[in-house]
């Protein structure tokens, strides 16, 4: 027979911290504390499998559980010397939920269970405090009616208010024992009215009701939603903890408090917490009374008068300190603790690893490693890579005032202030004059890239976390708030409206890309402190990781930033971003609109020296490191003119008419550009474009090599390949171009030719394709789009609903869909390596900076990930953790 | 050592008809004819592997070949009793190419080889005909100079013209021996001038030159292009046939001819052919002299005077008849034959299976089975399913005159005449008045469906074989010419221009969707004759096939046509086509533009009875057969208004303003609608739409069942599923709706719920999805789009180039890409059946009507294919052939 009840407390412990799966987090830690001899009120845990059984049985308990629970109660009675339901000195218990993962506020709790019309009198006598006894009883009735009986709690609160009004007082504390007793009677009436039965007086009936209610709360709507949002499986179930009550509200020698063993905000090694004398736990949280500091020093720093626990209860505090140190050493992590002092005796009610800021996480990890508490590897595992994001961008000064006028999505972290501009050209112009600007658009398009570059930050009214604005901004490391739906933008009037507020061009706003807030005026920011701890952790991470980390970058600025952040090469240099440059776009358009190859070649000849310069700069910065350059990828119409002015410019440059141009533009229109005439299809149909780009790459590489700089290693990457033949044809073109440049320049450099794997067919055909490729780079953005049949630009209309309904556990554009897209990557990896064992494998989609996806890349054995510059440290840490977890 | 030379003729035969791979088609059949004792001029074949070796060796022959060729020549010398290069009575040979597949006119030939300044005199003496000898010599020099030496043949033709002018004659036949001799001398000068060397006099040098030239012609540009277009692999190579010359031009007892053993146009069992007395083979083809009929009866039917071979050479004709019958019995197929009579002796030069029209193919297959020559199964295998298309549509009367004004793609077969209209509404209006119209559009969109239905045929200026117009027209069985690039259309002026021609609304044109021709005026057509042979063959096919054949249809008309053509159910009923109906579109638009569920439900309530009627009609027609109904699939914006008038209609119906509507339309815009908010994503986000459709289906099914008709078997199909969870959610909705309809109506009907597999992820997740699905239908159109990353609507810009360059062997939207898409289908089939062995599997993309794809479906074991109504017979035949070929 499976065991379902596990005892703990006062020398007994049927479980420990390793048993979270069965006991839940709270139960496991209570058992653990009991096991290491800490003062834990005795109790028992009903394991999570019973929760599932309970639902399987149609919300009934198997008979065998009764006997086990009876043994549990007997254990508590033995240890406390009290009897459950004893009229003279009754045992009271709490009944609390406790799932494997913390679900704060989602699940139900019943306190003071075991009181009835008779035992309340025994409690009054035994405690010598009738007010306490009746207050406890009415709290119990109120809680039980709400949680177990499902009655409207408003009716009870109203009765309490009436009681206070009748007595002409405002605070609960102003009510005396008789008042509570009277209220209890009123509560009993209310229960009979609403429930149509009297309040249960049998303490066992009370207990089973509470246990059932806690299990029941697992399936409440709010709990289900919480699990969905936090990725907690529905079949985990919750445990139930039944534990002897201890009371912090039994007078001036009683107290209750919460504490962290270190400062959760800064990571400083100092006890950090609050307590209240003569109070119950919920009073600390409720905020009715102002809690007092735990330590004298904290009180002094804050300039507070209320005496600290260290001063008011020095002996208990000393005991508590001992417990803090013991728990930290035992758990080898900073602990978040709940305790109660009942008439001078300390009781531990909870311990768990404490939540902390990124800054604190970093400091605690480094400190603990320094203290010898954990190893360097463990320190690396202790910091959430995603949280590093907070450290890598300027943040708003927390002390500054702010007037939030709108909220959007936190699309690209960091804070920025600047003057509002509504188009990319103005952004560039004003920024050229030294002004800080925020580019505000309904949504952005590739045409806006130069303006996004010029701006301090970007705000859009439409678009999700993976909209053009969001993706490009993250890539550039520009703060971005996207999809601020309440903002309405009028380009003509150069005005944005939000709420009652009208903001014109040149007005100052501030955006916080980490929270999604939009604020009026300039809010001061603080610069990121990439202090010693950060560097130390990164160096430890680098020692542990196998995966190399590259960056997605194409501007000299981004390349420099990425190197500072530790990038070991470029994994994706998008040449088309260079095409948008204001000085070049006219030549690009002329090339596209040319009627024949000769026309295209004429335009390309103008672009060649410009592209060569781009690559030369990048090669110089990335000296000696591999630089993966993707040949032109997007459909040509992305580069085409929109405004009349632009049409006129191109027409005059190309010696043609605006009408003719417009017709050509219409011809180039595509229904599904994502699946259209782009990627290597351009290289197959207009080989001269790729030829120019290859020439620019090799000429630049030779130039850098000749100038005495470290010779770069260009990796020429062909996008959107679906067949071996495509790569064969284009590789021949690239090799031919390389040969002719090397002959002309009388110098050769090493280079590789490889391909993106970003179509399902390419993944399946990886064996054949590998014969032509020196490397594969998984373009997981496009691979996700095609495998799932979801356009990233259009997904917002349904993907949110999909994630809410649990159809996809996470946004597949944020974390790789391991089942679907992941299988294709695995297939390609296997088939590619079977043909070419030394095939270099990497990933260059947005997923390269996502820790969960990085772990996937480690598991399937890729060689590198490539992330946007600001996510390089995140990827480094994630790669280290993935390697360590793999062992 | 590998053998390279294979002899044939006069009792010797080193090969046979099974050796086409090595000997090529011509060589294998010459060897075969020799083997069965037919009179074949002796010769030898150099096998195809030598062709590849020749290229591998840098266009050189291995030494070993010399000895083998010498043996071959010795064989000819022995059999003919002549010597190669013999001055007295020289052996002359022909050198001809012969690949595995016929490549008419693509490859080179040299005749009369072995003549030089000395042997020509021997030939004159031995033949007793100096004119013949010198004519043969000058023909040889001319041919050799062109084919082997690569000299400009214009110069030789000019010299011949000058010779005739000088003599004042017009015809070659007017030149005498001396004239030919003089011309030969001039030719010799020409060779020295152009080649800067004298014409080779060594007959062995001549021979090797010719062999090299034949091999060389395999890599000529025109041969390469031909192979690309006809899917002939480049690495097959060609064989070379060296054979003793026989001469049909040695006087009145000599002749040459070509013949078919049955009529290749009608299939009638009668010898069919032409011959010329005193002529060489090329004279028959060249058309300088009018060939005469072979048989007396053919001559009489044609009312021709020139005597038939049956009459002029009765003995040889009797011999030829015997050979025809022998060959037909031997090859068990209608033969296409070349022969020569040299001084009363019959020589066979070629035999091969004859090309024939679809009609003839059908008749010959049925007749031969009747004659016991082939089995029923073989008869089924003899008819090309694709060719059936010719029989199933009206065709232009071949006797009628026609004025072709433009050419486009043969997008949907059949011919149609009608008055030009430029928009769907006018098409509907005029057709409603009993007029026949042709809908002419730049390109079509779903908005045009009602006009396409109303029209006799469709002509578009843009779009490929798989454009909207082409696909929909094929589905409807309407003739369509798409992508007629030379047509320019002005909607405003209601005019199309092409060449110098201006055609306005109401002008009559004719289109031929089988050839792509557009003609001015009405060209008479002939109706298809689905005569006895067709029915017989279909019944034989049905006995042999395993795959079931369903149809893609949603109108009562199409359903009826498909049943007539033998459809065994509906594999794809696209409910959205019903939404475009003029009477409903406003309700549909109101539903889409509603701001909330209540608004949508109000509009859906109006659509419910209409949809129910649709299904009722279909169920009645398809009595007792399975009907697969796909729930709404396309993105909602496809239904939205375009014109101001339409906007006004919807605004008034929905009680809103045009401005508001337009804003909503803009909101619904998608960048990549193919990957957007469509398919089951609509069902997840707006469940009420699918609920209405499910209700309409079940209510209709119950109604038909109650009315005493055969109870239909609805198969409700959920589109665009990528995850098990989607199908789970929607299946629950469908089941719930079914239950409530069955309860309301107090009658249940059987039904299935299944899904399209049209996304790569769905194929990979097929195991899980199968748990929720009773059937899978592979939507290979979309699966091809996503797997290859190619938008069908946009592919024309590069896919043509791709097929030309051999990147894809065939258009993957016409024949399934077996490597890529095919692997996903196989994966899904395996994984689905592993979970659910009785999972029903079908295909409903356009590929369901493509014979190559049907064969693939047979191989991987699908249960059915579904094709557009007019392709159902093609699919039935293709399925039978695939099953028979599998054995």
What would your notes on this structure say?
Two copies of one chain form a homodimer. Chain A has 36 helices and 34 strands. Chain A has 887 residues and is α/β, with parallel strands linked by helices. Among the domains of chain A are: 5-244, Dna Ligase, domain 1, CATH 3.30.1490; 255-353, ATP-grasp fold, B domain (D-amino Acid Aminotransferase, Chain A, domain 1, 2-Layer Sandwich); 393-526, Phosphohistidine domain (Glucose Oxidase, domain 1); 758-887, Alpha-Beta Barrel (TIM Barrel), CATH 3.20.20. The radius of gyration of chain A is 33 Å and the shape is elongated. Chain A starts with a strand and ends with a helix.
Sum this structure up briefly.
The first copy, chain A, is of the alpha/beta class and 887 residues long.
What do the pLDDT scores of chain A average to?
A: 90
Based on the structure, what is the oligomeric state of the protein chains? homodimer
Instruction: Count the beta strands of chain A.
Output: 34
The largest sheet of chain A has its strands arranged as: 15-25-24-17-18-19-20-16
> Helicity level of chain A, as a percent range?
40-55%
CATH hierarchy, class of the domain at 5-244 in chain A: Alpha Beta
List keywords for this structure.
D-amino Acid Aminotransferase, Chain A, domain 1; Dna Ligase, domain 1; metal-binding (chains A, B); Glucose Oxidase, domain 1; 34 strands; Pyruvate, phosphate dikinase (chains A, B); eight-stranded parallel barrel; 887 residues; PEP_util_C (chains A, B); alpha/beta; magnesium (chains A, B); homodimer
């Amino acid at each position: 027979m499976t065991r379902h009840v596990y005892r703990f407390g006062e020398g007994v412990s049927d479980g420990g911290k390793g048993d979270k799966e069965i006991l839940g987090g709270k139960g496991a830690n209570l058992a653990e504390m009991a096991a290491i001899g800490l003062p834990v009120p005795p109790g028992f845990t009903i394991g999570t499998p019973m929760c599932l059984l309970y639902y399987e049985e149609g919300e009934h308990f198997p008979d065998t559980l009764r006997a086990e629970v009876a043994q549990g109660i007997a254990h508590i009675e033995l240890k406390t010397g009290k009897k459950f339901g004893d009229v003279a000195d009754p045992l009271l218990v709490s009944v609390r939920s406790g799932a494997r993962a913390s679900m704060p506020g989602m699940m139900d709790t019943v306190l003071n269970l075991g009181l009835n019309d008779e035992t309340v009198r025994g409690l009054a006598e035994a405690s010598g405090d009738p007010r306490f006894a009746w207050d406890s009883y009415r709290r119990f009735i109120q809680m039980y009616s709400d949680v177990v009986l499902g009655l409207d709690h408003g009716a009870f609160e109203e009765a309490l208010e009436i009681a206070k009004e009748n007595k002409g007082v405002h605070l609960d504390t102003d009510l005396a024992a008789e008042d509570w007793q009277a209220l209890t009677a009123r509560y009993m009436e209310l229960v009979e009215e609403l429930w149509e039965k009297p309040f249960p007086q049998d303490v066992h009936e009370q207990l089973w009701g509470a246990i059932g209610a806690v299990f029941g709360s697992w399936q409440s709507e709010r709990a289900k939603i919480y699990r969905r949002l936090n990725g907690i499986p529905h079949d985990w179930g919750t445990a139930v903890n039944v534990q002897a009550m201890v009371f912090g509200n039994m007078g001036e020698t009683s107290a209750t408090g919460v504490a962290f063993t270190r400062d959760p905000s800064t990571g400083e090694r100092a006890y950090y917490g609050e307590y209240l004398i003569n109070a119950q736990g919920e009073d600390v949280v409720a905020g009715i009374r102002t809690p007092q500091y735990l330590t004298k020093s904290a009180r002094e720093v804050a300039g507070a008068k209320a005496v600290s626990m260290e001063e008011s209860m020095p002996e208990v505090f000393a005991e508590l300190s001992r417990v803090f140190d013991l728990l930290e050493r035992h758990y080898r992590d900073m602990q978040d603790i709940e305790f109660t002092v009942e008439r001078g005796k300390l009781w531990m009610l909870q311990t768990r690893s404490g939540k902390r800021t990124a800054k604190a996480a970093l400091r605690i990890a480094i400190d603990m490693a320094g203290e010898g508490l954990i190893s360097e590897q463990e320190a690396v595992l202790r910091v959430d890579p995603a949280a590093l994001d907070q450290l890598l961008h300027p943040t708003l000064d927390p002390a500054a005032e702010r007037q939030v006028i709108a909220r959007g999505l936190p699309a690209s972290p960091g804070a920025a202030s600047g003057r509002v501009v509504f188009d990319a050209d103005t952004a560039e112009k004003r920024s050229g004059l030294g002004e800080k600007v925020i580019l505000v658009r309904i949504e952005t398009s590739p045409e806006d890239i130069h303006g996004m570059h010029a701006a301090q930050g970007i705000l859009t009214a439409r678009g999700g976390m993976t909209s053009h604005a969001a993706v490009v901004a993250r890539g550039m490391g520009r703060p971005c708030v996207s999809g601020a739906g309440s903002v309405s933008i009028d380009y003509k009037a150069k005005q944005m409206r939000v709420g009652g507020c009208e903001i014109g061009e040149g007005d100052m706003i501030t955006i916080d890309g980490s929270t999604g807030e939009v604020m009026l005026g300039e809010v001061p920011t603080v610069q990121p402190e990439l202090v010693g701890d950060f560097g130390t952790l990164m160096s430890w991470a680098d020692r542990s990781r196998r995966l190399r980390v590259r960056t997605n970058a194409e501007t000299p600025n981004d390349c420099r930033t990425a190197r500072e952040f530790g990038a070991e090469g470029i994994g994706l240099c998008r040449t088309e971003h260079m095409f948008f440059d204001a000085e070049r776009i006219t030549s690009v358009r002329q090339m596209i609109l040319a009627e024949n190859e000769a026309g295209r070649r004429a335009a390309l000849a103008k672009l060649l020296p410009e592209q060569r310069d781009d690559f030369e700069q990048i090669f110089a910065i990335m000296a000696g490191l591999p630089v993966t350059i993707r040949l032109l990828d997007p459909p040509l119409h992305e580069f085409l003119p929109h405004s009349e002015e632009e049409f006129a410019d191109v027409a005059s440059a190309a010696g043609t008419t605006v009408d003719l141009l417009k017709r050509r533009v219409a011809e180039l229109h595509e229904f599904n550009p994502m699946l259209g005439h782009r990627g290597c299809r351009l290289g197959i149909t207009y080989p001269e474009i790729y030829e120019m780009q290859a020439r620019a790459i090799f000429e630049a590489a030779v130039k850098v090599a000749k100038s005495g700089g470290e010779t770069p290693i260009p990796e020429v990457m062909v996008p959107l390949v679906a067949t071996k033949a495509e790569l064969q044809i284009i590789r021949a073109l690239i090799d031919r171009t390389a040969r002719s440049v090397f002959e002309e320049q009388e110098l050769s450099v090493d280079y590789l030719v490889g391909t993106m794997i970003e179509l399902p067919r390419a993944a399946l055909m990886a064996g054949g394709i590998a014969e032509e490729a020196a490397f594969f780079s998984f373009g997981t953005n496009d691979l996700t789009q095609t495998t799932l049949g979801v356009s990233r630009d259009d997904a917002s209309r349904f993907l949110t609903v999909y994630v809410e309904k649990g159809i996809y556990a996470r946004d597949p554009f944020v974390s790789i869909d391991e089942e679907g897209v992941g299988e294709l990557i695995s297939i390609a990896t296997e088939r590619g390596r079977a043909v070419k064992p030394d095939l270099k494998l990497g990933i260059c989609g947005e997923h390269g900076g996502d820790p969960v996806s990085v772990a996937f890349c480690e598991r399937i054995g890729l060689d590198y990930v490539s992330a946007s510059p600001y996510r390089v440290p995140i990827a480094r840490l994630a790669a280290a953790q993935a390697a360590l977890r793999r062992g």
